[in-house]
Amino acid sequence: MKTILLPTDFSLNAKHAADFAVSLAGLIDAKIILLHAYESPVSTTPFVLPLPQQGLMQEALEETRTLLAQTKDDMLAKYGDVLANKLETKLVFGNPVDNILEAAAEVRADFLVIGSLGEGGVLANLFGSTALSIAQKSKIPVWVIPQQSTIQTIKEVIYASDLEGDEVGCINKIINIGALLGIDHTKLVHVKEYLSPEIFPSSEIIDLLEEEFGGEKIIFRNLYRDDTIVGIDKYIRNQKPDAVILAQRPKGFVEKLFHESIIKHLTLSSQIPLLVLQKKY
């Protein structure tokens, strides 16, 4: 059985991400681990906290435990047919980003699902900079779910590629995920700014990839635009895919795609689910 790690901060946004996680779990016969990262308001002073303050901290912790249990009960009430014996909870303490990534490794999660407000809004609580940091640092695939996105079957996706690094390995990973989720086809689109230099012509790379993956339900597009991010946004709006895929190289290499932070941009503004993968250099 596969495992989906679902961080929550108990917000409406988190509940929307939970709906997507349940849909995903049903497709791949996975269990869900509902996780909350609790940051205790511990004093940084070397002095012992007064008993009243200690009591308030304990009360906050117990309230968090109750919320986590209630969230589980609500999910079982809503999706009991999908989640029967497949929903667990986990409470961790400390920095949300570090603890979520450590938990993903500990439970050997196959996917991580987290929410974002989208539409360029100011992200709050867990789903602010935390969602972006997790998407950038995670070693496993991360689904970032905008609050206003529609939860539906994913049949068509766009993979926004920089054509750098191990593109063949990354496409194979996308093909495998597509087979799991029943995706009909993927459009690999590379958007290049007119005057940006190329070590290897992108058109030749696209030709090689088409030769390698002909018949694999992948359509290749090589586009030239004045601005990469604007070009990607416009292409997504025009094509209306069910989800967008991005891939990034490991930390220590260039972490930006297309010389701009496309991952940051789409994590904070996308109106459809976004899947972020790691790609070898």
From TrEMBL:
Membrane-crossing segments per the record: none
Residues in UspA domain copies: 1-146
SUPFAM superfamilies given in the database record: Adenine nucleotide alpha hydrolases-like (SSF52402)
Highest rank taxon of the organism: Bacteria
Pfam families named in the record: Usp
Family, per entry: Belongs to the universal stress protein A family.
Name of the protein described by the UniProt record: Universal stress protein
Organism phylogeny: Bacteria, Pseudomonadati, Bacteroidota, Cytophagia, Cytophagales
